[in-house]
Amino acid sequence: MKIAVTGSTGLIGTALVASLRADGHEVVRLVRRAARSADEIAWDPVRQTIDAGKLNGCGAVVHLAGAGIGDRRWSEAYQRELRDSRVLGTATLAEALTTLDAPPAVLVSGSAIGFYGYTDGRRVDESAPPGDGFLSGLCVAWEEAASPAEEAGIRTVFTRTGLVVARGGGAWGKLFPLFRAGLGGRLGSGDQYWSFIALHDEVAALRHVIDTEELTGPVNLTAPEPVTNREVTAAMGRVLHRPTPFPVPAAALRLAVGGLAEDIVGSQRVIPTRLLESGFTFAFPTVDEAVRAAL
Question: From first to last of its 295 residues, what are the pLDDT tens digits of the chain?
Protein backbone atom coordinates (compact mmCIF):
# COMPACT_ATOMS: atom_id res chain seq x y z
CA MET A 1 0.00 0.00 0.00
CA LYS A 2 1.06 3.58 -0.62
CA ILE A 3 0.85 5.50 2.66
CA ALA A 4 1.48 9.20 3.28
CA VAL A 5 2.84 10.30 6.66
CA THR A 6 3.17 13.76 8.18
CA GLY A 7 5.45 14.30 11.16
CA SER A 8 7.70 11.58 9.79
CA THR A 9 10.81 12.88 11.57
CA GLY A 10 9.24 12.88 15.03
CA LEU A 11 9.49 10.14 17.63
CA ILE A 12 6.40 8.23 16.50
CA GLY A 13 6.65 9.10 12.81
CA THR A 14 10.24 7.89 12.48
CA ALA A 15 9.35 4.52 14.02
CA LEU A 16 6.15 4.20 11.97
CA VAL A 17 7.87 4.92 8.64
CA ALA A 18 10.60 2.39 9.39
CA SER A 19 8.01 -0.26 10.32
CA LEU A 20 5.91 0.31 7.20
CA ARG A 21 8.89 0.27 4.85
CA ALA A 22 10.28 -2.87 6.49
CA ASP A 23 7.06 -4.62 5.50
CA GLY A 24 7.21 -3.44 1.91
CA HIS A 25 4.78 -0.50 1.99
CA GLU A 26 5.52 2.54 -0.15
CA VAL A 27 5.76 5.55 2.17
CA VAL A 28 5.67 9.17 1.03
CA ARG A 29 6.54 11.81 3.60
CA LEU A 30 5.09 15.30 3.79
CA VAL A 31 7.93 17.76 4.43
CA ARG A 32 7.92 21.48 5.27
CA ARG A 33 10.37 22.40 2.50
CA ALA A 34 10.78 21.78 -1.21
CA ALA A 35 10.55 18.07 -2.03
CA ARG A 36 13.96 16.58 -2.83
CA SER A 37 12.98 13.07 -3.88
CA ALA A 38 10.06 11.09 -5.26
CA ASP A 39 9.03 9.96 -1.77
CA GLU A 40 8.51 13.51 -0.49
CA ILE A 41 5.56 15.89 -0.79
CA ALA A 42 5.98 19.59 -0.01
CA TRP A 43 3.54 21.28 2.31
CA ASP A 44 3.32 24.21 4.71
CA PRO A 45 0.76 23.47 7.43
CA VAL A 46 0.67 27.02 8.81
CA ARG A 47 0.44 28.80 5.44
CA GLN A 48 -2.01 26.04 4.46
CA THR A 49 -0.36 25.03 1.20
CA ILE A 50 0.20 21.48 -0.05
CA ASP A 51 1.15 19.70 -3.27
CA ALA A 52 -2.10 17.76 -3.15
CA GLY A 53 -1.79 15.96 -6.48
CA LYS A 54 1.01 13.78 -5.15
CA LEU A 55 -1.38 12.31 -2.59
CA ASN A 56 -3.37 10.57 -5.32
CA GLY A 57 -3.08 6.82 -5.04
CA CYS A 58 -2.42 6.74 -1.30
CA GLY A 59 -4.47 4.07 0.41
CA ALA A 60 -3.95 5.71 3.81
CA VAL A 61 -2.74 8.99 5.28
CA VAL A 62 -1.30 9.16 8.79
CA HIS A 63 -1.16 12.69 10.19
CA LEU A 64 1.24 13.10 13.12
CA ALA A 65 2.64 16.60 12.54
CA GLY A 66 2.59 19.33 15.16
CA ALA A 67 4.92 21.52 17.19
CA GLY A 68 6.45 19.62 20.11
CA ILE A 69 4.47 19.85 23.34
CA GLY A 70 7.61 19.77 25.47
CA ASP A 71 9.98 21.65 23.19
CA ARG A 72 9.58 25.06 24.88
CA ARG A 73 7.96 26.83 27.80
CA TRP A 74 4.24 27.39 27.24
CA SER A 75 4.22 31.12 26.59
CA GLU A 76 1.16 32.62 24.91
CA ALA A 77 3.10 32.74 21.65
CA TYR A 78 4.07 29.07 21.87
CA GLN A 79 0.53 28.06 22.76
CA ARG A 80 -0.56 29.73 19.50
CA GLU A 81 2.15 27.81 17.65
CA LEU A 82 1.00 24.53 19.23
CA ARG A 83 -2.56 25.23 18.16
CA ASP A 84 -1.82 26.56 14.67
CA SER A 85 0.57 23.74 13.78
CA ARG A 86 -2.15 21.20 14.60
CA VAL A 87 -5.41 22.87 13.66
CA LEU A 88 -4.27 24.61 10.48
CA GLY A 89 -2.20 21.62 9.39
CA THR A 90 -5.08 19.18 9.92
CA ALA A 91 -7.53 21.44 8.09
CA THR A 92 -5.10 21.85 5.18
CA LEU A 93 -4.57 18.12 4.84
CA ALA A 94 -8.24 17.17 5.27
CA GLU A 95 -9.39 19.68 2.68
CA ALA A 96 -6.70 18.57 0.24
CA LEU A 97 -7.85 14.95 0.51
CA THR A 98 -11.37 15.94 -0.55
CA THR A 99 -10.06 17.31 -3.85
CA LEU A 100 -8.34 14.09 -4.96
CA ASP A 101 -9.60 11.96 -7.82
CA ALA A 102 -8.60 8.91 -5.78
CA PRO A 103 -8.83 9.83 -2.07
CA PRO A 104 -7.41 7.49 0.57
CA ALA A 105 -9.60 4.93 2.28
CA VAL A 106 -8.55 6.19 5.72
CA LEU A 107 -7.14 9.27 7.42
CA VAL A 108 -5.49 8.50 10.77
CA SER A 109 -5.28 11.87 12.46
CA GLY A 110 -3.16 12.11 15.59
CA SER A 111 -4.63 13.49 18.80
CA ALA A 112 -3.87 13.06 22.50
CA ILE A 113 -5.42 11.94 25.76
CA GLY A 114 -5.20 15.58 26.78
CA PHE A 115 -8.70 15.62 25.25
CA TYR A 116 -10.09 14.31 28.55
CA GLY A 117 -8.40 16.83 30.84
CA TYR A 118 -7.36 15.66 34.29
CA THR A 119 -9.43 12.65 35.35
CA ASP A 120 -7.70 11.91 38.69
CA GLY A 121 -8.60 8.32 39.67
CA ARG A 122 -11.67 8.13 37.44
CA ARG A 123 -11.34 5.69 34.52
CA VAL A 124 -12.36 7.18 31.18
CA ASP A 125 -12.54 5.79 27.67
CA GLU A 126 -13.57 7.09 24.25
CA SER A 127 -17.15 7.67 25.43
CA ALA A 128 -16.04 10.42 27.85
CA PRO A 129 -16.58 14.11 27.01
CA PRO A 130 -13.73 16.60 26.70
CA GLY A 131 -12.24 18.07 29.83
CA ASP A 132 -11.13 21.59 30.69
CA GLY A 133 -7.93 23.50 30.09
CA PHE A 134 -5.62 24.35 27.22
CA LEU A 135 -4.73 20.81 26.14
CA SER A 136 -8.34 19.68 26.10
CA GLY A 137 -9.42 22.66 24.01
CA LEU A 138 -6.49 22.11 21.68
CA CYS A 139 -7.42 18.45 21.12
CA VAL A 140 -11.07 19.31 20.45
CA ALA A 141 -10.12 21.90 17.81
CA TRP A 142 -7.48 19.56 16.38
CA GLU A 143 -10.01 16.79 15.81
CA GLU A 144 -12.72 19.11 14.51
CA ALA A 145 -10.30 20.38 11.85
CA ALA A 146 -10.48 16.96 10.13
CA SER A 147 -14.22 17.30 9.51
CA PRO A 148 -13.87 17.94 5.73
CA ALA A 149 -12.39 14.45 5.31
CA GLU A 150 -15.14 12.87 7.43
CA GLU A 151 -17.86 14.70 5.52
CA ALA A 152 -16.34 13.55 2.23
CA GLY A 153 -16.75 9.90 3.32
CA ILE A 154 -13.13 9.19 4.15
CA ARG A 155 -12.86 6.89 7.18
CA THR A 156 -11.32 9.15 9.81
CA VAL A 157 -9.77 7.93 13.06
CA PHE A 158 -8.46 10.13 15.87
CA THR A 159 -5.66 8.35 17.71
CA ARG A 160 -5.57 9.82 21.21
CA THR A 161 -2.07 8.91 22.34
CA GLY A 162 -0.86 8.76 25.94
CA LEU A 163 2.67 9.13 27.30
CA VAL A 164 4.94 7.19 24.93
CA VAL A 165 7.63 5.19 26.69
CA ALA A 166 10.76 5.73 24.61
CA ARG A 167 14.31 7.01 25.03
CA GLY A 168 14.29 9.10 21.87
CA GLY A 169 11.78 11.80 22.77
CA GLY A 170 8.65 12.83 24.61
CA ALA A 171 8.23 12.88 28.38
CA TRP A 172 9.91 9.56 29.02
CA GLY A 173 12.87 10.49 26.85
CA LYS A 174 13.54 13.38 29.21
CA LEU A 175 12.94 11.33 32.35
CA PHE A 176 15.40 8.55 31.53
CA PRO A 177 18.52 10.71 32.16
CA LEU A 178 17.12 11.88 35.51
CA PHE A 179 16.54 8.33 36.69
CA ARG A 180 19.86 7.08 35.33
CA ALA A 181 21.58 9.79 37.37
CA GLY A 182 19.77 8.66 40.51
CA LEU A 183 17.70 11.87 40.56
CA GLY A 184 14.36 10.28 39.74
CA GLY A 185 11.59 10.00 42.27
CA ARG A 186 7.86 10.18 42.73
CA LEU A 187 6.09 13.48 42.16
CA GLY A 188 4.41 14.72 45.32
CA SER A 189 2.12 11.99 46.64
CA GLY A 190 2.77 9.86 43.56
CA ASP A 191 -0.92 9.02 43.33
CA GLN A 192 -1.54 10.67 39.96
CA TYR A 193 -2.23 8.26 37.10
CA TRP A 194 -0.10 8.05 33.98
CA SER A 195 -1.62 6.52 30.86
CA PHE A 196 1.41 5.20 29.01
CA ILE A 197 2.13 3.16 25.88
CA ALA A 198 5.35 1.54 24.65
CA LEU A 199 6.62 3.00 21.38
CA HIS A 200 6.45 -0.47 19.81
CA ASP A 201 2.76 -0.76 20.74
CA GLU A 202 2.06 2.79 19.54
CA VAL A 203 3.35 1.92 16.07
CA ALA A 204 1.55 -1.43 16.05
CA ALA A 205 -1.69 0.27 17.11
CA LEU A 206 -1.41 2.86 14.33
CA ARG A 207 -0.97 0.06 11.81
CA HIS A 208 -3.90 -1.83 13.35
CA VAL A 209 -6.08 1.27 12.94
CA ILE A 210 -5.09 1.57 9.28
CA ASP A 211 -6.05 -2.04 8.62
CA THR A 212 -9.23 -2.27 10.74
CA GLU A 213 -12.07 -0.94 8.63
CA GLU A 214 -14.65 -0.85 11.42
CA LEU A 215 -12.64 1.67 13.45
CA THR A 216 -13.71 5.29 13.05
CA GLY A 217 -13.69 8.28 15.36
CA PRO A 218 -11.64 8.39 18.57
CA VAL A 219 -9.38 5.49 19.56
CA ASN A 220 -7.24 5.72 22.70
CA LEU A 221 -3.65 4.58 22.26
CA THR A 222 -2.70 3.74 25.84
CA ALA A 223 -1.74 0.55 27.64
CA PRO A 224 -4.67 -1.42 29.13
CA GLU A 225 -3.96 -0.49 32.75
CA PRO A 226 -2.70 3.01 33.61
CA VAL A 227 -0.41 3.15 36.63
CA THR A 228 0.29 5.73 39.29
CA ASN A 229 3.39 7.87 39.29
CA ARG A 230 4.48 5.96 42.39
CA GLU A 231 4.32 2.70 40.38
CA VAL A 232 6.17 4.28 37.45
CA THR A 233 8.90 5.47 39.80
CA ALA A 234 9.30 1.99 41.27
CA ALA A 235 9.42 0.43 37.78
CA MET A 236 12.06 2.87 36.55
CA GLY A 237 14.17 2.15 39.62
CA ARG A 238 13.85 -1.60 39.16
CA VAL A 239 14.68 -1.63 35.47
CA LEU A 240 17.50 0.93 35.65
CA HIS A 241 18.83 -0.41 38.97
CA ARG A 242 18.83 3.05 40.53
CA PRO A 243 17.51 4.26 43.88
CA THR A 244 14.43 6.48 43.83
CA PRO A 245 14.18 7.66 47.44
CA PHE A 246 13.33 11.34 47.10
CA PRO A 247 10.21 13.04 45.76
CA VAL A 248 10.72 15.48 42.88
CA PRO A 249 9.13 18.92 43.32
CA ALA A 250 6.79 19.86 40.49
CA ALA A 251 8.77 23.10 39.97
CA ALA A 252 11.96 21.14 39.34
CA LEU A 253 10.18 18.88 36.88
CA ARG A 254 8.89 21.87 34.95
CA LEU A 255 12.46 23.13 34.61
CA ALA A 256 13.55 19.71 33.30
CA VAL A 257 10.77 18.92 30.84
CA GLY A 258 9.06 22.22 30.02
CA GLY A 259 5.47 22.07 28.83
CA LEU A 260 5.36 18.32 29.21
CA ALA A 261 5.18 18.86 32.98
CA GLU A 262 1.49 19.70 32.62
CA ASP A 263 0.85 16.17 31.36
CA ILE A 264 3.22 14.55 33.85
CA VAL A 265 2.03 16.33 36.98
CA GLY A 266 -1.65 15.87 36.08
CA SER A 267 -3.57 12.64 36.54
CA GLN A 268 -5.20 10.86 33.60
CA ARG A 269 -6.56 7.32 33.88
CA VAL A 270 -7.43 6.53 30.26
CA ILE A 271 -8.53 3.10 29.02
CA PRO A 272 -8.18 1.89 25.36
CA THR A 273 -11.63 0.32 25.17
CA ARG A 274 -12.12 0.56 21.41
CA LEU A 275 -8.61 -0.68 20.61
CA LEU A 276 -9.09 -3.75 22.79
CA GLU A 277 -12.57 -4.45 21.46
CA SER A 278 -11.21 -4.38 17.91
CA GLY A 279 -8.83 -7.25 18.72
CA PHE A 280 -5.55 -5.43 19.27
CA THR A 281 -2.98 -7.24 21.42
CA PHE A 282 -0.32 -5.31 23.34
CA ALA A 283 3.23 -6.63 23.20
CA PHE A 284 4.29 -4.59 26.27
CA PRO A 285 1.17 -4.02 28.38
CA THR A 286 2.85 -3.33 31.75
CA VAL A 287 5.02 -0.40 32.68
CA ASP A 288 8.02 -2.64 33.48
CA GLU A 289 7.76 -4.25 30.05
CA ALA A 290 7.40 -0.87 28.35
CA VAL A 291 10.47 0.56 30.09
CA ARG A 292 12.53 -2.54 29.21
CA ALA A 293 11.38 -2.29 25.61
CA ALA A 294 12.55 1.34 25.49
CA LEU A 295 16.03 0.20 26.56
Answer: 999 999 999 999 999 999 999 999 999 999 999 989 989 999 999 889 999 999 999 999 999 998 777 666 667 887 888 888 899 999 999 999 999 999 999 999 999 999 999 998 899 999 999 998 888 999 999 999 999 999 999 999 999 999 999 998 887 888 888 888 887 888 777 888 999 999 999 999 999 999 999 999 999 999 999 999 999 999 999 999 998 877 766 565 555 555 555 555 668 999 999 999 999 999 999 999 999 999 9
Q: Any idea where the domains of the chain sit in the sequence? A: 2-294
Q: Side chain identity at 292, as an amino acid letter?
A: R
* Angle value at C-alpha 183, between 179 and 188, nearest 5 degrees: 100
How would DSSP label each residue in 23-56? TT-EEEEEESS---STTEEEEETTTTEE-GGGGT
Q: Which CATH architecture has domain 2-294?
A: 3-Layer(aba) Sandwich (3.40)
Query: pTM of this prediction?
Result: 0.92
Helices then strands (H, E): number in the chain? 11, 14
The Cα angle at residue 54 between residues 29 and 31, in degrees rounded to 5: 30
Measured distance CA(111)–CA(108) in Å, rounded: 9
Distance from C-alpha of 125 to C-alpha of 270, rounded to nearest angstrom:
6
